[in-house]
């Protein structure tokens, strides 16, 4: 009959980083006072395509995956999705022009 050995591993109970500090320092997720997602929807509503929208967000210091940006642009183009997915930011034509001008468009 074989005897099984009980191997106990020591587990550290101290977290490597303090708990509760989940915010990333320096993360910017607002453009003109609105969330990046709401601005992306507004860009979609304005007919701005993926390449230009990606440049606009990056110029504003916001990194969003191209897949997520594409989805948000689509939500902006489809008013039926606004109730469930949130409305686009109420950007004026001048504000959209300002964002486009910042990337040379």
Report Rg.
22 Å
Q: What string, H for helix and E for strand, traces the elements in order? A: EEHHHHH
Mean pLDDT, all residues: 82
**Strand ordering within the main sheet:** 1-2
Tell me the fraction of residues in β-strands, as a range: under 5%
The major β-sheet equals: 2 strands, antiparallel
Q: Ranges with pLDDT <50 over ≥5 residues? A: 11-26
Number of strands: 2
Report the span from N to C terminus.
Answer: 80 Å
Class by SSE composition: mainly alpha
Quaternary form: single chain
Helical percentage: 40-55%
Structure notes:
The chain has helices at residues 36-45, 50-59, 66-77, 82-85, 93-101; strands spanning 30-31, 34-35. It is mainly α and 105 residues long. The chain has a domain at 30-101. Strands 1-2 form a two-stranded antiparallel ribbon. Helix 1 packs across helix 3.
Keywords for this entry:
globular; 105 residues; two-stranded antiparallel sheet; 5 helices; mainly alpha; single chain
List the helices and strands and how they pair.
Layout: E1 30-31, E2 34-35, H1 36-45, H2 50-59, H3 66-77, H4 82-85, H5 93-101
Antiparallel strand pairs: 1-2
Helix pairs in contact: 1-3
Question: Briefly, what is this?
Answer:
This protein is mainly alpha-helical. Helix content is 43%, strand content 4%.
């Amino acid at each position: 009959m074989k005897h099984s050995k009980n191997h106990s591993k020591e587990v550290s109970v101290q977290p490597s980083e303090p708990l509760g500090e989940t915010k990333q320092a320096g993360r910017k997720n607002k453009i003109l006072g609105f969330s990046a997602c709401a601005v992306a929807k507004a860009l979609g509503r304005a007919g701005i395509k993926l390449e230009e929208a990606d440049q606009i967000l990056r110029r504003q210091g916001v990194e969003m995956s191209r897949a997520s940006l594409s989805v948000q642009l689509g939500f902006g183009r489809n008013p039926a999705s606004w109730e469930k997915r949130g409305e686009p930011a109420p950007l004026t034509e001048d504000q959209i022009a300002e964002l486009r001008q910042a990337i040379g468009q």
